[in-house]
Amino acid sequence: MASKNQNNAPSSPSQSKRSIDEASIDKRRRIANTKMPPNTGTRTQTRQAFSVVNGGQDLPPLCGPPSNSGSDCSAIEFNKDDVETLLNEKLKKNLNYREKNDKMIDLIKRLKLCIKWFLQLEANYVAEQDKIKKLLELAEKKCIDTELMMNAKEDELNSIIMELRKNLEALQAKFAKEEVERVEAMDSLARERDLRLAAEKLQASLSDDLRRTQLDNASANQKIQSLNDTYRRLQEFNTSLHQWNSRLQSDLETTNKTLKRVQEEKAAVVENLSTLRGHYTSLQEQLTLSRASQDEAIKQKEALGSETACLRGDLQQVREDRDRQLSQVQDLEAEVAKYKECTGKFSANLESLNTKAVELESTCSSQSEQIRKLREQLAFAENKLQLSNMSAMETRSEFEENKSLILELKSRLADADVKIVEGEKLRKKLHNTILELKGNIRVFCRVRPLLSDDGVGNDAKVVSFPTSMDLQGRGIDLNQNGQKHSFTYDKVFVPDNSQEDVFVEISQLVQSALDGYKVCIFAYGQTGSGKTYTMMGRPGLPDQKGLIPRSLEQVFQTKQMLEAQGWKYEMQVSMLEIYNEAIRDLLATNKSTFDATRVENAGKQYAIKHDANGNTYVSDLTIVDVRSSREVSYLLERAAQSRSVGKTQMNEQSSRSHFVFTLRIIGVNESTDQQVQGVLNLIDLAGSERLSKSGSTGDRLKETQAINKSLSSLSDVIFALAKKEEHVPFRNSKLTYLLQPCLGGDSKTLMFVNVSPDPSSLGESLCSLRFAARVNACEIGIPRRQTNLRSSDSRLSIG
Ligand SMILES: Nc1ncnc2c1ncn2[C@@H]1O[C@H](COP(=O)(O)OP(=O)(O)OP(=O)(O)O)[C@@H](O)[C@H]1O
């Protein structure tokens, strides 16, 4: 029991008290049951004895004091009632003597037993009383010792409690101090945080530190809270100890009062003592725990100190940041000062802007006035607009009518376009037919006027023109030594005929070139007869423009007209001369080409090639795309400056080479899916001259021989073509080979024979006229014999 009570926790003093009270009551009960006061004990023992004597079965067996072994009443117990019942028992009247005697004997026996039991009980009580007295004395001694010890322990506990209180006060003071420091640190941190937040958001790391510090503070607060809880528990424990002590004192007083009466109270005191010992042990343990908690609190204090140091470090860092921020603030203040200066300037500007605003306001008011007027005008205009809308409605209806009319006209126009295309095709066909009927090789004769330089002989008028109806405009008579030579051609131009008159006659051929035919127009004649004049005209005089510029003007004019029908044309120009059977590029930009020393070799550079489509290509020849007659005129001037010229008896500026102007015309009509490719060759041949007259030496002789040779070759080709012979000797000269695709077949060839009326060159004129007459006669199908020409005249022979 003692060890069990020692293990009881002291934390529940009321429970302990209750257990102690119950124990005390139990003990008291037991003491009351076992104790028999000397004056009353006889009656009780007597009753127990009488109960036994009266039968004893209905009485509960009581644990009486120890009895003598072997005695009859050792197991019999008596109480007061039993004794009184035994003493008051009377015999029944209806009993006989014997029965009365038996009953009396039995009663006597029971009385004897009761007396005997009572005497034994009394002796036992006396012995027990002595023993209890001795035990009480010992218990008193022990209680006094225990009380002394308890007092000592109480003093010791009081001193410990005082010490703990002091420690707690010191800890509380430290905690309060640290709390104040913490609050100060928190305040400073809050201030610094405000500064930080106001300055820049770059202090995110410091915010993290602050959060950590706050967490540490929270943990410290928790620790403080736990310490406060511990302190509160200790206080409660101290209070319970006080209560327990007071209860112990009261119990001690109760024990002292009942010490003499109750033996079991000694055990209770012993138990209490053991309990107190247990409590003492537990108090010692609590003390140990308190010391441990004190150590822990000291450690926590140290930890808090280190945390405070950390916080101070953070505070120092925060202060440094604050210093940095302050420097930034100073910089910002400097900037603010600058901005203030700028603000001053801006305020000046603002004043000027204010004045401008005032001006603008005045302008605005005037504009408001204008707006008002404009609104009036707008209202007026709206009225007009309504009227206009009404008229627009009328116009719209007219428009619809016109639209339908336009559609009808468009359909008619489309029909007309189709008809035009068809008509154009028909025109081309008819035009070609007419030209074919006129002859693919035609000969025109042109007699130039008599010039002042021309020599005047006996018979000044060697050229005349028949006036008969059938030959008018086609015949020419040449008088030589009284003999009249008459020639007929497709057309004869008299000296009075202008350049325009001549061009009118050849313009149909130019149209053929645009229609896609190959056209060649030659100017043939003796030197000084007017070939260059006919082809090129006189420079600087527009009314004396020659066939080439006029043809080009017609080409570009017709091109523009045909573009309306869907035709698109590309024009390419090339110009070359054949000098001494060598080709020379007159549009080449390299001037060295015209170096006389390179003339002979230059021919090899310009190889003539014909393709299957009848197109001619000269390698290395300059071909220029042209879009206007002006561009071509510019090129013609350049070429004229590059031509090989010389001086003859008949001409100061005699052309010593054949000049070939080629215009390639490529036309495409996408709407009718037609394509044409025509060529217009305009050729100013070198002037024929008798060798006897040319001064026939050196280069001059060579030039004249080359010219005569190429002209002879050309006459061969033209005769062959006119006679439609199978073998045409194109390769006899560069000129004929170059013109091969443009001669014969569907090609149109026109030869001008230029004649000089100068009597001194009558022979040359006669030769030219005879040659041209033969060509013309072949073409129109006149039998050779009817021309009265000798066979030897079939070839042009000059010199
Ligand atoms: N129809 C004409 N009307 C007026 N003057 C003309 C006419 N034909 C030629 N002339 C003039 O006659 C001169 C010789 O003419 P042109 O130079 O054209 O002869 P040519 O046949 O080209 O000579 P060559 O073969 O030697 O080059 C020039 O001064 C030219 O102005």
TrEMBL record:
Coiled coil start-end: 136-272, 315-391
Compositionally biased region (Polar residues): 36-45
One Pfam family recorded for the sequence: Kinesin
GO terms for MF: ATP binding; microtubule binding; microtubule motor activity
Binding-site residues for ATP, renumbered to this chain: 525-532
UniProtKB keywords: ATP-binding, Coiled coil, Microtubule, Motor protein, Nucleotide-binding
Family: Belongs to the TRAFAC class myosin-kinesin ATPase superfamily. Kinesin family. KIN-14 subfamily.
Name this polypeptide is given: Kinesin-like protein
Organism listed in the record: Perilla frutescens var. hirtella (Perilla citriodora)
